[in-house]
Amino acid sequence: MTPRLDAISIITSDLAASLAFYRRLGLDIPEGAESAPHVEVTLPGGQRLLWDTEEVIASFDPDWQRPADGGERVALAFVCDSPAEVDALYAELVDAGYTGHLKPWDAVWGQRYAVVLDPDGCGVSLFAAASPAEK
Questions:
Q1: Which of 67, 86, 102, 114 has the CA that lies 20 to 30 A from 127?
Q2: Which helix or strand (DSSP H or E) is residue 66 part of?
Q3: What pTM was estimated for this model as a whole?
Q4: Largest pairwise CA distance in the chain
């Protein structure tokens, strides 16, 4: 299966200000979302726009630093069909010479997750729903 672009993620230092800005651009962001550390909206074409606070990013990527002079705050996220596909695609990209940023791991939010850097150093997330628990 070919990975599909699923989400665009914004890392923000001020979630309320960011959500207010995008509401002004017509996005239907639920009221009260400002109190959450992570916010998602589905766009008309089916893709999602995600916001995470800097604290959320630092909670799973302790080496992440606030970009200087407006650096990277937007990242692409590609959904895969399985945790095995996340692992295989990560390995394929790293083997092809791209920089692996976060090796695949089982995230606490229920996904297999990894991050590879694109040629410009932008983070590209690879993820899949975690396997269902065995009964």
A1: 67
A2: none
A3: 0.66
A4: 50
CA distance 41 to 44: 10
- Joined tokens for residue 126: 């690879």
User: For residue 66, what are its two tokens?
Assistant: 């606030």
HSE-CB for 23 with a 13 A CA cutoff: 13
Rounded distance between C-alpha atoms, residue 11 and residue 41, angstroms: 15
Distance, CA of 65 to CA of 42 (rounded, Å): 28
Burial of 8 (0-12, 13-18, 19+ CB in 10 A): middle
* 55: number of Cβ within 10 Å: 10
Structure tokens given for 72: 């990277």
Residue 83 phi, psi dihedral angles, 5° rounding: -60, -35
